[in-house]
Design goal:
This protein is mainly α and 133 residues long. 71% of the residues lie in helices and 0% in strands. It starts with 11 loop residues before the first helix and ends with a helix. It is found in: Cell membrane.
């Protein structure tokens, strides 16, 4: 056995507060992930089961197959609804870029500031294929 060096323990209430804060975040993250995965399985599992059944026996009507395909597509429309409901950071980011979600009095970002923020550098000289080769 290797003796452990004594460490400075956090104060009781501070340790509890740190644990509660992180456990609440972990619980919320797992709840969001559970809802997203649950919605995915509810939307796409019937499609995949029917797809296998169609390959084996060819007994699935085309209309039913189309309905299940569109059910899967509806899952993609549910994600932008689920994320803002459960993730505050996602809601804030969308509020910056979508006019319908922006709070009144909040300035609209300009195209230049967005491109500068996303480029990770300043203005660049135009590059051509000749310069690259």
């Amino acid at each position: 056995q290797v003796p452990r060096a004594p460490s400075q323990p956090l104060a009781g209430s501070e340790s509890r507060r740190f644990t509660n804060k992180h456990s609440k975040k972990a619980l919320k993250a797992s709840l969001t992930l559970g809802i997203l995965l649950g919605m995915f399985f509810v939307a796409w599992l019937p499609f995949f089961v029917t797809n296998v059944a169609q390959a084996v026996c060819g007994c699935v009507p085309a209309g039913f197959f189309d309905v299940l395909t569109w059910l899967g597509y509806c899952n993609s429309t549910m994600n932008p609804i689920i994320y803002p409901l459960f993730m505050r950071d996602f809601k804030r980011a969308m509020g910056k870029f979508l006019p319908c979600c922006r709070r009144s009095g909040e300035p609209r970002p300009s195209a230049i500031s967005l491109s500068m923020r996303n480029s990770n550098s300043g203005p660049r000289a135009a590059t051509s294929l000749k310069n690259v080769l």
